[in-house]
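TA notes. Do not distribute before section.
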Amino acid sequence: MEFALVIPLLFILIANTVNFAGLYYALIAVGNGSRAAGDYMIMSSVAYSGVDSADGAGLPPLTGPLDTGSPADAKLVADVVGKDMSSLTNRNSIQVRTCTLTPSDDANLSTDAVCNICTNSGGAMSCSSGGISSFTNPSPDTSTGEGGSYTLAWVDVTYTYDPFIPLGFSFPGLGLYLTLPSNLVVHRQAVYRVLK
């Protein structure tokens, strides 16, 4: 009798352990993806083109500086995120925004930044210009004070997490769920100052 009462609680405990572990892993993957993409974006002239050297040494050739104002170069940055987050489920929900801004005392993050948004559809990233208003911008204090001695560059990554084991019994009006609710949005931003 007691065993029959404990089994559903044990199942809920196991399901929540799996779901919270998946969410924790997604948080780590999104954070790592945003930092890796930011590192790739600011490394500019040493960016890997995807082609190994002709002599077989496996060293990546040097390419030109990345221009994140260009959707083609923003796609290179977004591909780094896509590869870094390839083990996640629901990969089609990945969105990557790359932006650059040359700061000045009158710079406005909302209007002066050059941004591209990349989305994952069917495993391939596609990018388009614009889209600054749908993401969180860096703090305004990062864009003023030092004139044009650096370029502010940032990468936003968003991912929608769905629990591995959805448990349908919940009271959303009260905010009570047996497990994590569906469609949790995970967002991470990496902000860099690139010296000129």
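Switch to the second chain here.
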Amino acid sequence: MLPEKEAYRARSQGPVSLKYAEENEEEVMTIRVLVIDDEEDIRRLVQIKLSKAGYDVTTASDGEEGVALALKIRPDVVIADIMMPGKDGYQVVTELKGQLAFEPPVLILLTAKNQKADIIHGLAGGADDYVTKPFSPRELIERIEVALIKAGKTSPGS
């Protein structure tokens, strides 16, 4: 485990929003995650694993629905597939970065596209991380946690 992550790990309450925890010293709110993937099995797997890790998870089956949900619920993290009908993951990242510019969610692409050019395109387009399928749910959780720390969205010791 990375040293900076040891300081904030407390699984009993799950990850908490730093902003919320500062404003409401006694109350904590779990981190909201939106998973956007056209494959039901992937959505379900990620939802189950992240829920067990203490995250509040919502899912969407395509990019259009995902962007609409993100604008409505303002998640802390968005995990999006790239290859989806309608809006692809690259478009989702670009749109959310633009529309939620003042408080953007952590954006992670989770995809089967594993070529270096695809990874560079995703990261250059604004994604905070890029995870290729097949993937380890534990690694995905670790990457979410690191991205949240970098974005200042989790509280040390939470």
